[in-house]
């Protein structure tokens, strides 16, 4: 593929409601429109892709044609008793009022290159009513930190296409190892999945998610799910943070070893 130009989008779109459909929604999260078992429209929580420190060779397949969407985001700050917060920064918008979170957080925003993948690894809850059941093929939001975005773009230039490309992802136990894994090795054995292979492979999981295989294998609608919250809402969040234990303590000093277990995040079945 030729080198692609990143599109930095930041215009305000539809307002995503910060609540989900029957999920525990502690914290500020991203949501997408979905349907429940009764066919009613709900907001489904979007989970970002991450590995535990030391995890090896998690198989994933990318769903985007290009990784050409970047977002400025506030992540990893404490609010509502959890660190698992994700809020799109408003500082890059055409809005002279700026971003209230930039004003109160010590660690300001980070740029992320955005993608969608299906995590083909297995996941099994160790407690609760579904303990011991094995789940796989979760659709995940991929947030690539700016520090490694160029490495991903260089990788893309070597690929025919990102869509369908399979990787084995590992995360080291090193201090500050990347939550999305430090090692992305192209899976030459698995290769690039065709459209038909994607549909066949994920049809069953799409059914669980109550949508078609086509919809399940489509990247997230980034303009929708990453639409910034209204300025007034960010002002409220900023005021909450400011009146809490102080701005400095709301920013985690190091994101090392911050896998799911240390996020203070209780996740329901993540689909
Ligand atoms: Zn900001």
Report on this structure.
There is one protein chain. The protein is an alpha+beta fold. It has one domain (7-249). Helices cover 20% and strands 23% of the residues. It contains 6 helices and 10 strands, in the order ββββββαββαββαααα. The strands form 2 sheets. Strands 1, 4, 5, 6, 7, 8, 9 and 10 form an 8-stranded mixed β-sheet that branches. Strands 2-3 form a two-stranded antiparallel sheet. The longest helix is centred in the C-terminal third of the chain and has 14 residues, at 195-208. It is globular, with a radius of gyration of 18 Å. The model is unreliable at 11-25 and 245-271 (pLDDT under 50). The structure holds zinc ion (ZN). The site of zinc ion has 8 residues, from helix 1.
Distance between the termini: 32 Å
Number of structural domains: 1
Helix and strand element order: EEEEEEHEEHEEHHHH
Question: What share of the residues lie within helices?
Answer: 10-25%
Structural class: alpha+beta
Write the layout of secondary structure elements.
Blueprint: E1 7-8, E2 30-35, E3 41-46, E4 58-62, E5 69-75, E6 86-88, H1 100-104, E7 110-123, E8 135-145, H2 146-158, E9 166-170, E10 183-186, H3 195-208, H4 213-216, H5 222-225, H6 231-243
Parallel strand pairs: 1-5
Antiparallel strand pairs: 2-3, 4-7, 4-9, 5-6, 5-7, 7-8, 9-10
Zinc ion binds next to helix 1.
């Amino acid at each position: 593929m030729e080198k692609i130009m990143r599109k930095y989008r930041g215009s305000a779109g539809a307002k995503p409601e910060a609540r989900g459909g029957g999920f525990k929604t502690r914290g500020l999260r991203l949501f997408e429109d979905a349907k429940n078992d009764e066919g009613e429209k709900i907001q489904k929580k979007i989970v970002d892709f991450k590995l535990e420190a030391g995890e090896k060779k998690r198989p994933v397949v990318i769903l985007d044609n290009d990784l050409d969407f970047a977002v400025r985001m506030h992540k990893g700050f404490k609010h509502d008793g959890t660190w698992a917060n994700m809020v799109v920064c408003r500082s890059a918008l055409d809005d002279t009022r700026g971003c209230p979170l930039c004003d109160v957080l010590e660690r300001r925003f980070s740029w992320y290159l955005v993608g969608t993948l299906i995590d083909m690894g297995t996941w099994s809850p160790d407690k609760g009513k579904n303990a011991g059941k094995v789940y796989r093929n979760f659709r995940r939001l991929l947030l690539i930190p700016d520090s490694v975005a160029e490495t991903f773009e260089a990788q893309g230039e070597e690929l025919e296409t990102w869509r369908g490309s399979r990787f084995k992802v590992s995360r080291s136990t090193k201090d500050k190892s990347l939550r999305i894994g430090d090692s992305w090795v192209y899976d030459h054995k698995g290769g690039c999945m065709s459209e038909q292979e994607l549909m066949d492979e994920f049809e069953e999981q799409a059914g669980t998610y109550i949508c078609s295989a086509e919809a399940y294998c489509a990247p997230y609608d980034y303009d929708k799910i990453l639409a910034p919250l209204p300025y007034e809402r960010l002002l409220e969040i900023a005021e909450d943070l400011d009146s809490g234990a102080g701005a400095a303590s709301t920013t985690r000093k190091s994101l090392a070893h911050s896998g799911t277990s240390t996020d203070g995040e209780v996740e329901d079945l993540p689909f």
